[in-house]
Amino acid sequence: xxxxxxxxxxxxxxxxxxxxxxxxxxxxxxxxxxxxxxxxx
Length: 41
What we know:
Elements: H1 2-25, H2 31-34
């Protein structure tokens, strides 16, 4: 249960930061820039 909540929170963070990068810099950031793995392990 707690793992699922953490994954959802991380997903929301990535979505928000991706939108912010797109709106302010007109690009989509890499996973490295967001500090996340490309796929969950």
